[in-house]
Amino acid sequence: PKITVLSVVAVTITAFFIYLIFQLKIFISPPVLSLTYPQQNAVVSENVLVEGQTDPDAIVSINNQEVKKNKNGAFSQTIQLTAGTHTITIIAVDQNGKSATLQRTVQVKRE
After folding, report:
1. SS3 string of the chain?
2. What digits encode the pLDDT tens for the residues 8-39?
3. Rounded distance between C-alpha atoms, residue 44 and residue 47, angstroms
4. Which residues of 27-56 are buried (b: 16+ CB within 10 A; e: fewer)?
5. Cα–Cα distance, 30 to 32 (Å, whole number)
6. Which of 9, 44, 50, 87 is most deeply buried (CB count within 10 A of its CB)?
7. Are the beta carbons of 97 and 83 closer than 8 angstroms?
8. Is beta strand 47-54 parallel, antiparallel or unpaired with respect to 74-80?
9. Which is nearest to 38 in space by CA: 6, 77, 91, 74?
């Protein structure tokens, strides 16, 4: 019986510390942010589709304009750019104020 009680206590304490480490990682880590389109140095039209994925609770902006995302964190927004070289900046900010930033440089050709 003593060994069983000690084993249960040890497993409970271990599980508690694993949970704490997991929660700490969530608290200190920035949100996940990935971009599926456009690719770096892509040649695009003046209407550029920006697509990506982030954490469901994060707020996303493209070139300082907040964009909507679905319940899974996917976003898709068309932005207008003039001919030339442009850098598109995508930022995701989570509920704890942590942010992740991606940038893509694109070459816009007139349609």
Report:
1. CHHHHHHHHHHHHHHHHHHHHHHHHHHHCCCCEEEEECCCCEEECCEEEEEEEECCCCEEEECCEEECECCCCEEEEEEECCCEEEEEEEEEECCCCCEEEEEEEEEECCC
2. 889 999 999 898 887 787 777 889 999 999 99
3. 8
4. eeebbebebeebeeeeebeeebebebbbbe
5. 7
6. 50
7. no
8. antiparallel
9. 77
C-alpha 55/C-alpha 109 separation (Å) is: 32
Are residues 62 and 33 in contact, defined by beta-carbon separation less than 8 angstroms? Answer: no
